[in-house]
Design goal:
Elements: E1 6-11, E2 14-21, E3 24-29, H1 32-45, E4 56-57, E5 60-64, E6 68-72, H2 74-83, H3 113-126, H4 134-141, H5 149-163, E7 169-173, E8 180-186, E9 198-205, E10 208-216
Antiparallel strand pairs: 1-2, 2-3, 4-5, 5-6, 6-7, 8-9, 9-10
């Protein structure tokens, strides 16, 4: 109901999942015969080629083992650093200083809007496997209409952090509990532009992180409880 490109078929106690993106398809099943049946059906209707076990998909690297699956975007991360000439930059220990204060910076010097938007767009795609930079990337994204030097400097600190953490990703162990756990929090009037608060959530299936969010609230909260 939520993900329109994900298809699920159940056969008794077995299940097959098919994820489609334009002309690329990822599929997996609890039984080999279901995969073979799906391949035969698709190749009978379309001209298709099998790429084998999933290892790379849309910039996402997939490493599979008996212990679990590791997802990362280290190759894409290095490409971003090269694209924005930050390959040899100094590393930062955090994606944003705790004392960082970002606002519209009306008196600040303007920077190339296209370059700034390109940087933010690249970083947003990286949040596919890097929830630890989602908040600060979304924060920097708020200033795309009129970026200033201070905003570009904050975005470059994210790149400096990525320089030392290119191999960080998401680990999904083979054996884990089936308990769904959710966490949520928010700041209070954190946005300096309109005084709106920012919500953050994450959900774990056992010890596996499966969903995360950082989003500015739709209206101004009048108290911390409301936020």
């Amino acid at each position: 109901m939520i993900e329109k490109t994900l298809f699920i078929k159940k056969a008794n106690s077995e299940i097959i999942l098919v994820q489609i993106y334009v002309d690329d398809i990822i599929f997996g099943a609890t039984k080999d015969s279901l995969c073979e049946e799906f391949v035969a059906a698709m190749q009978g209707e379309f001209e298709m080629s099998m790429m084998g076990e999933l290892s790379f998909f849309l910039g996402l690297q997939v490493k599979q083992s008996k212990d679990g699956i590791f997802l990362c975007q280290s190759k894409y991360c290095k490409e971003i650093l090269k694209k924005f000439e930050m390959e040899s930059c100094k590393e930062a220990s955090t994606p944003m200083p705790s004392s960082c204060y970002m606002d519209a910076d009306a008196a600040g010097k303007r920077v190339d809007q296209m370059k700034y938007r390109g940087l933010i767009g690249s970083l947003l795609y990286l949040t596919t496997s890097r929830p630890n930079v989602m908040f600060v990337v979304c924060l920097c994204a708020r200033y795309q209409a009129n970026p200033k030097e201070s905003h570009l400097k904050a975005a470059k600190i994210i790149l400096k952090y990525l320089k030392g953490t290119t191999n960080v990703g998401l680990w999904y162990p083979s054996y884990s509990s089936i308990h769904l756990i959710g966490y949520s929090d928010s700041d209070f009037a954190g946005c300096k532009l309109d005084q709106r608060s920012t919500s953050g959530t994450c959900h774990l299936f056992g010890s596996s992180l499966i969903s995360w969010l950082s989003k500015k609230q739709a209206c101004v909260a009048l108290s911390t409880a409301e936020a």
